[in-house]
Design a protein that fits this description.
The protein is of the alpha+beta class. The protein contains 18 helices and eleven strands. Strands 1, 2, 3, 5, 6 and 9 form a six-stranded mixed sheet that branches. It has a three-stranded antiparallel sheet with strand order 4-8-7, with no helix packed on it. The structure holds ligand LFVS4E46 and flavin-adenine dinucleotide. GO terms for molecular function: acyl-CoA oxidase activity; FAD binding; fatty acid binding.
Length: 551
């Protein structure tokens, strides 16, 4: 995050000075925004940067314990510089949060600078290879030039000058990382399902009849139900990630031309896609662990590490709930645009159907299911706006009405995102397989159908509300889904092999390409320190005295 912020928030002159040093590793930096007391609410951050025109410096200060920067990766022992997000004060006026480049350790000795308190925040559920740290300032001075001045400036005499064309320019790095995280979610889910599917092809357990041999667990329908949605989702996230990256790049190019019109839609898309992709990836990686029984619980399976690593993405770079609420904010505005007869942006153009007042006729084709997801999203949004307005009519303020409706708002945002992801998944597969062999087309179509059928069956309640789907339609869809799993089974191992993930990347005794699971599990077990000697010294110091009643 350090380098992207230098690129996004510095003037060209500042970039010319800082970027080469950062890219050359002469300086190592991190992005310190979150504090002990605030992560989501950026406007509530307490660290201050007060400009002193006498010395042309900013005085960095941590006025309270809760103002200490907390969490930044590498902050504890690695970095010697930080991008610090602080409340900017000049001429007695607070201008809100702005980014500053702050040296925190000596470039030669690596000792913390006077006025800087820095340390490690302690063990975490995962990410323990990163030294996430804390940082406090005691009236620590930095040169005026260390304010990142692309979007706002403080002149030598302390005059504040706003430069950015849009109010949230300083939030740009977060949008960039959120876009990257969709791709990271896809990559890590692909690793987990490669491990789980390969292991499920090796593992034999239970024989349906007394004479027969034990079945590969991958042959069981319930195992296919657990795992094939994981494969389908890994592809869905990867294709949505590529689509979102292009949307991001197009928006950035437009902003460079002075056109910020598409930024709100990008913020809404990056928010909900980051939220859903990281939440789906984390829960499906856990599902891959469940599918591997006891051996999935071994660190040597690679699955606990993947889960601990990915589940954090639901929180950092914007908490799941918060980002969905950002998308909901955009959707409510889009709904009002439909009412006013104004044109809609592409990803919300389906909302016009919210005003037909009729249930969408059920169509179980892939395109029909995608339309049903859109009808579901439009219906949930319409119902949410109705709740909002009912609360406003009761005399509540907009903020109060909004807060009371946030559960529904999040549901509408999630439904919108599922519809967008499903649409992108199918259209990207069709675009990319135009010249593919019939077999490749068939397999990839089977996977997006798994995704569509799975989520339709997960959302039958909503589909009954907003489409004409019947009980028998649901019964037929369930049978079709279960039949599709059996069609995919023969290709399942080949499909995860196609992720082309090397053993060194998987780090898994269960998922290695050669399938020698049991030999690898035993080899990993031998590495346990407890196997260094036949009798551990704790027998003599604790067990034996206890057995003799001497403890
Ligand atoms: C599997 C993963 C593997 C590897 C990953 C690799 C690397 C990662 C490894 C480790 C983690 C590393 C780093 C982690 C870093 C961090 O976590 S950095 C800190 C991140 N923190 C956040 O994301 C905080 C979240 N909070 C916010 O973004 C904001 O507070 C807010 C919730 C958006 C609210 O902001 P605010 O109160 O200022 O604004 P609102 O009043 O809600 O909205 C005002 C208008 O502004 C628009 N808006 C808001 N944000 C943006 C934006 N980013 N871009 C564009 N526009 C924005 C908003 O839509 C409103 O517009 P309006 O409706 O028209 O008024
Ligand atoms: C592994 C990891 C690495 C990180 N790396 C960095 C880093 O490098 N730099 C950095 O600056 N930060 C980093 N962070 C911090 C991260 O950005 C924050 O944890 C994140 O933004 C969430 O903020 P918070 O922790 O204050 O949670 P909170 O915002 O306090 O959330 C707690 C709960 O309150 C809910 N909540 C909060 N506000 C609202 C609201 N308005 N409406 C409804 N519910 C609400 C949330 O949904 C959540 O359920 C990292 C975090 C982790 C876990």
């Amino acid at each position: 995050m350090f380098v992207p912020t230098l690129m996004g928030q510095c003037t060209p002159e500042q970039q010319a000075y800082w970027l080469p040093r950062a890219l050359d590793m002469q300086i190592i930096g991190t992005y310190a925004q979150t504090e002990l007391g605030h992560g989501t609410f950026i406007r509530g951050l307490e660290t201050t940067a007060t400009y002193d025109p006498e010395t042309e410096t900013f005085v960095m200060n941590s006025p309270t314990l809760t103002s200490y920067k907390w969490w930044a990766g590498g902050l504890a022992k690695t970095v010697n510089y930080c991008i610090v997000v602080a409340q900017l004060y000049t001429k007695g006026v607070c201008h809100g949060t702005h980014p500053f480049i702050v040296q925190i350790r000596d470039e030669e000795t690596h000792m913390p600078r006077p006025g800087v308190k820095v340390g490690d925040i302690g063990p975490k559920l995962g990410f323990n290879t990163a030294d996430n740290g804390y940082l406090g300032f005691d009236n620590y001075r930095i040169p005026r030039d260390n304010m990142m001045m692309k979007n706002a400036q403080v002149l030598k005499d302390g005059t504040y000058v706003k430069v950015a064309r849009h109010g949230k320019a300083t939030y740009g790095t977060m949008v960039f990382v959120r876009v990257l995280l969709v791709n990271e979610a896809a990559f890590n889910l692909a690793k987990a399902c490669t491990i789980a599917v390969r292991y499920s092809a090796i593992r034999r357990q239970c024989s349906p009849d007394s004479e027969g041999s034990e079945l590969q667990v991958l042959d069981y329908s319930t195992q296919q139900h657990k795992l094939f949605i994981c494969i389908a989702t890994a592809h869905a996230l990867q294709l949505n990630s590529t689509w979102l990256w292009k949307t991001f790049s197009d928006t950035l190019a437009a902003i460079k031309q002075g056109n910020v019109d598409t930024l709100p839609e990008l913020h809404a898309l990056s928010s909900c896609l980051k939220a859903l992709s990281t939440a789906d990836a984390a829960s499906l990686i856990e599902q891959c662990r469940h599918a591997c029984g006891g051996h999935g619980y071994m660190m040597s399976s690679g699955l606990p590490y993947l889960y601990a690593f990915v589940t954090a993405t639901r929180t950092y770079e914007g908490d799941y709930t918060i980002l969905l609420l950002q998308t909901a904010r955009f959707l409510v505005k889009a709904y009002e645009q439909v009412e006013a007869g104004k044109p809609l942006t592409p990803t919300v153009s389906y909302l016009s159907q919210a005003f037909t007042g009729k249930k969408l006729p059920w169509d179980s084709s892939p395109d029909g299911i995608i339309r049903a997801f859109q009808a579901l999203a439009a219906g949930k949004l319409s119902s949410t706006v109705k709740s909002l307005r009912k609360r406003l009519e009761s005399g509540l303020s907009y903020e109060q009405a909004w807060e009371l409706s946030t559960i529904q708002l999040n549901g509408a945002a999630e439904a919108h995102c599922r519809a967008v992801m499903s649409q992108n998944y199918k259209s990207e597969i069709e675009r990319l397989t135009v010249n593919s062999s019939p077999n490749v087309k068939l397999v990839l179509q089977q996977l997006y159908k798994v995704y569509l059928y799975y989520w339709a069956l997960e959302r039958t309640g909503d589909l009954l509300l907003y489409t004409s789907i019947s009980e028998s339609d649901i019964f037929e869809l369930q049978l079709r889904y279960e039949g599709l799993l059996k069609e995919i089974r023969p290709n399942a191992v080949g499909i995860v092999d196609a992720f082309d993930l090397r053993d060194e990347v998987l780090h898994s005794a269960l998922g290695s390409y050669d399938g020698n699971v049991y030999e690898r599990l035993m080899a990993e077990a031998q590495k346990s320190p407890l196997n260094a000697e036949p009798v551990n010294q704790t027998f003599h110091t604790y067990l034996k005295p206890m057995m003799k009643g001497k403890l």
